[in-house]
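FAQ: What does a multi-protein file look like?

Like this. Sequence, then tokens, then the next protein.
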Amino acid sequence: MVGLDRRLRTTDCRQVTTSTGSSEVWQARIGVELAAELRADARVLGLDGRTEMVRAALRLLHQRAAEERMARVVDDFYEGRTPPLPVGVRRAPPRAGSEPDAAA
């Protein structure tokens, strides 16, 4: 599917997605400086090539979104109150100069 998406930017953005039925190809253009940094990061992490790098990044993005969704569910459940700490976890002592926690 090829189309122009004017919602994301003030300049035209060409969106290209190719689907083979069981997978999709996503593309993004990045600057040369970021590309060099990402290649160095990939070496540190033992990732081989762009495909592994993009898959790892997308997995992290998905994981972060799942964590955010879970945090929002907890916030909604407790309706602004401070949720209890997990069993076996103690509240940290207040730091010098900080106000005591009203929910403690």
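And here is the next protein:
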Amino acid sequence: MTFSVTGGMVGGNRTVTWNDGKLEGDSKVIAYLETEARLREIEERPTGPPCGPYTWTAKDTLADPLAALFLILESFGQQATADNLEITGEVPEVPPGDIAADGVQ
């Protein structure tokens, strides 16, 4: 599975690609993602949007495509909107039975 997220950040557009558990693209964004993922693993914090769905991984958060997508989207911060983000490729879906971001199962 491979997907890419491109969006605006300070200094211009940045792209990060997740390819079967490996990150490619902007080195500063990747460094942030690796640090944030490790902190969540140490602190046992879930990964996901404010209203869910969430993923919990005890190790290697970035190996999970859904957790990686959530972290990548978070890395674009409050500037991220549907107007300035592009997600391409095989985008991971929320598993059946999980609570979607809008609260509907």
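Q: Is there any per-entry metadata?
A: Some entries carry free-text notes. For the entry above: Residues 36 and 73 are 12 Å apart (CA to CA).
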